[in-house]
Write a structure and sequence with these properties.
Number of domains: 2
Low-confidence stretches: none
CATH topology of the largest domain: TIM Barrel
Oligomer: single chain
CATH architecture of the largest domain: Alpha-Beta Barrel
Strand content: 25-35%
Number of strands: 21
Distance between the termini: 29 Å
Shape: globular
Mean pLDDT: 94
Length: 465
């Protein structure tokens, strides 16, 4: 993943992060030596480079020409950097980075700001190219005099579908134009539906299938969960039933994308993301049968797959937690500095010193059932040292000596700002503050083999035969 803001730190004027590009080249070289092909994801919304949410860029790209030009320059520079290596296999963007653009229907639809956002983003112009105002009013039972009066709809509005079609069209247009700077770019398309109102008063789900050919691209990329293609399932199903869902879903996409091969970039056979656990529909004991059975459909319709979580990870809320960027992102008092040891930067704190980092709320995982937050770090000291650790208004003292790893438990609140005070000389590294562990049951955070690893290995073996 190549976060837009981390690599292109400013867009007016355009500025780049030289360190990020040097690390990208190191990565490409290491992958090339290991004979691994690399596909990259352009964009990525969850970008910690800066305290504010990077969603603003993805809003602005709809309406601001300078932002769009900056995007093209970013895409071109990434392509030129990666294409120097023979193991570069291309790249893709994803509809998920435009999530907030789609969700304006929920954020501002029907509010006093709906017309402002609609006009700014070009929604009225889009509608005027499809309809006369009389046609629009007749179809959607409205009484607008001019298109510029039409705001971002609410989901219950009959013309709500047009907002989703509008953003669909924008993402495809952007994809196609970006190919001028990043050849053969493809896209992870949206295969779930959006619920909107209808003339009958019922709610129906509209499809985004007009994007599935990726703007006449070479192939289509999707995320897949076993629950997709169903109307909702209570409880668990057999592997045989889930494989039937898989075959029908892939065939539906294949028949609507110009019969292009499908790359499953996120095969979410299980998903523990808060609020999305309902996709885990297969009996646990039948997961090995499911993995083995995926082979036929995968070979028939796809050119491969990837998993989102190879090794479990905590949603670390801290920026630059391993100090690769020195003290960037951290504030400090007293004698504090970074030093490279054995090829890795570490944090050195002298007696009576303190480091601090503000944690914006958008970095905190919401919706988790467990409110525990874990504050972990590696330490090294030659004398007994007391650390005072604060997360928001919560405070704990922790005594250390020698080398080790510490993990303390706090409670997740709206304020997760971190303070670390030391009364002695100490070295710290690998600082983590997380309240959720993302998992796909392959490897634990510590590297332990988990329940679905054998099944994925079997699938890989069968796919290569």
């Amino acid at each position: 993943m190549i976060p837009w803001r981390e690599f292109q730190t400013e867009i007016q004027p355009v500025r780049y992060n030289d360190y990020a590009f040097s690390r990208l080249e190191e990565f490409m070289e290491a992958a090339q030596k290991a004979e691994l092909m690399v596909q990259i994801r352009l964009g990525y919304l969850n970008d910690y480079y800066g305290d504010d949410n990077s969603a603003e860029r993805f809003y602005d790209i709809l309406s601001d020409e300078n932002t769009k030009v900056a995007w093209f320059e970013y895409a071109e520079k990434i392509y030129k950097t990666c294409s120097q290596y023979y193991n570069f296999g291309g790249g893709f963007i994803t509809w998920e980075d435009f999530w907030h653009n789609y969700m304006l229907i929920d954020y501002v639809g029907g509010t006093e700001n709906s017309v402002l956002f609609s006009v700014k983003d070009g929604f009225p112009e889009y509608l005027s190219e499809k309809y006369t105002i009389e046609e629009f009013n007749s179809i959607y039972q409205t009484n607008f005099l001019e298109f510029w009066e039409i705001g971002v709809p609410q989901r219950s509005d009959l013309y709500a579908e047009e907002w989703f079609y509008f953003i669909d069209q924008f993402t495809i247009d952007l994809l196609v134009e970006t190919r001028n700077y990043f050849p053969n770019l493809f896209m992870e398309v949206r295969t779930d539906g959006d619920k909107v109102g209808t003339h009958s008063g019922e709610v129906e789900s509209i499809s985004h299938k007009d994007t599935w050919d990726c703007g006449n691209g070479e192939f289509t990329t999707i995320m897949y969960k076993p629950v997709q293609g169903t109307s909702g399932i209570e409880g668990k199903v057999s592997a045989e039933k889930a494989l039937d869902y898989l075959e029908k879903w892939l065939d539906q996409i294949y028949q609507n994308n110009g019969k292009r091969k499908i790359f499953i970039d996120q095969f979410l056979y299980v998903d523990n993301t808060p609020g999305y656990e309902g996709g885990n529909i297969i009996y646990d004991e039948e997961m090995p049968l499911y993995f083995a059975g995926c082979t036929d459909s995968f070979k028939k319709y796809t050119n491969g797959y990837g998993v989102w979580v190879y090794r479990d990870y905590g949603n670390n809320m801290l920026f630059n937690p391993q100090f690769a960027l020195g003290l960037e992102g951290w504030e400090y008092e007293g004698e504090v500095y970074c030093e490279n040891r054995d090829g890795s930067n570490k944090l050195f704190m002298s007696s009576d010193s303190e480091v601090m980092q503000l944690v914006p709320q958008w970095r905190i995982m919401s919706g988790t059932q467990d409110t525990t937050a874990y504050f972990c770090f590696d330490y090294e000291t030659s004398e007994p040292t007391k650390l005072v650790l604060m997360v928001g208004k919560q405070q704990q003292e922790y005594n250390v000596e020698g080398e080790g790893k510490a993990c303390l438990e706090f409670t997740t609140t709206e304020d997760m700002t971190v303070h670390i005070y030391s009364d002695g000389n100490i070295i710290l590294d690998n600082i983590m503050l997380y309240n959720f562990v993302q998992s796909q049951s392959l490897y634990s955070m510590e590297g332990k083999e988990l329940s679905d690893l054998a099944g994925v290995r079997l699938l890989n073996k069968l796919m290569s035969e």
